[in-house]
Amino acid sequence: MAKGDNKVSGKSIMGLMTLEAGFGVKLKVIARGSDAEQALDAIQALFEQKFYEE
Amino acid sequence: MTGMANSSEKLTAVDPPARRAGVPGHRRVAEAGLRVFLKQAHDDSVVEREISPAEVPREIARFESALIATRRQLREFQQECDPAVASIFDAHLLILDDRPFIENVITGIENRRRNVEVVLQDVARGFMQALARVKDEYVRERVADVQDVTRRILHNLVGRRSSLADIKSKDVVLVANDLAPSEIVSIDKSRVIAPGARRAAPRPVPRSPAYQIGHSRCWACIPSAARSPRRRSDSG
């Protein structure tokens, strides 16, 4: 996950917290590996569904 | 508050049995064994040791065993505590499963050839410093959670248990400034008949015994005694 030049692993809760990604912040999601496309689709759906919290 | 040490009560090394003077915060009187809880040097100190290449797998295995034990304890705490508090341990489990945190410890053992306790403290310190720099107050407060999880892993590595764990069988006057969630769930709160603090505060602060135990105020402020000599310690 990246916010500007600050990149952290999506597997790190502590790294993600240091991103300070509050409401309205633009994030870039980078995925690597054989199922990268699938992972990005799932993350996109998660954001579009507002994390299923509404 | 009467803080006379009960002869059968085990006291911490820096607080020899003695009469303690402090600032009263309550008009009532409580009498029980005095427990002064300090998290410093001797609680989290570790010995730095150089290891040979042959010892690396054993150190990594020790770390993995401590992670498993910590995970088991956190899940037990979740089941035992109030549902409102249980979510704190969700955050602790996420910290425990943080891949870069785990990988940094493992690569640190391999590259630096030091025992796991030392590498763990250094890695945790790096994460805590990064969180402490964040502007968001909620995120900054998570430093205490990383500290609590790190301490629990360390205690599992060295076979140390919280000195509060035996507050289940007798009443105590508990004096502390800062109790972590995993420390709170390890004690029987009904046994703490009077919470005290080591620093004066107008009202209980969130991690003080008075607040955690549901008292509107601490019963007395008993300032710190002379500090013991400092050893290598990061999370106290």
Describe this structure in words.
The complex is a heterodimer of chains A (54) and B (236). With 54 residues, chain A is mainly alpha-helical. Chain A is built from two helices and two strands, in the order E-E-H-H. Chain A has helices at residues 13-18, 36-48; strands at 2-3, 6-7. Chain A is globular. By secondary structure, chain B is mostly helical. Helix content of chain B is 44%, strand content 7%. Chain B has nine helices and five strands; from the N terminus they run E-E-H-H-H-H-H-H-H-E-H-E-H-E. Chain B has helices at residues 41-44, 56-80, 83-96, 99-112, 116-132, 137-141, 143-158, 181-184, 209-213, and strands at residues 23-24, 33-36, 172-175, 192-196, 220-221. In chain B, the strands form two sheets. A three-stranded parallel β-sheet of chain B has the order 2-3-4. In chain B, strand 3 (172-175), helix 8 and strand 4 (192-196) form a beta-alpha-beta unit. Residues 1-15 and 226-231 of chain B have low confidence and may be disordered. The A-B interface holds A 9, 11-15, 17-18, 20, 22 and B 91, 94-95, 97-101, 127, 130-131, 133-136, 139, 142, 146.
> Helix and strand succession of chain B?
EEHHHHHHHEHEHE
Q: Cα distance, first to last residue of chain A?
A: 24 Å
Tell me the Rg of chain B in angstroms. Answer: 19 Å
Into which percentage range does the β-strand content of chain B fall?
5-15%
What does the average pLDDT of chain A come to?
A: 92
Strand content of chain A: 5-15%
The low-confidence parts of chain B are 1-15, 226-231
Described by strand count, sense and barrel closure, the largest sheet of chain A is:
2 strands, antiparallel
Using DSSP, what is the number of strands of chain B?
5
Shape of chain A: globular
**Mass-distribution shape of chain B:** elongated
Number of helices of chain A: 2
**Largest sheet: spatial strand order of chain A:** 1-2
Give the class of chain A from helix and strand content and strand pairing.
mainly alpha
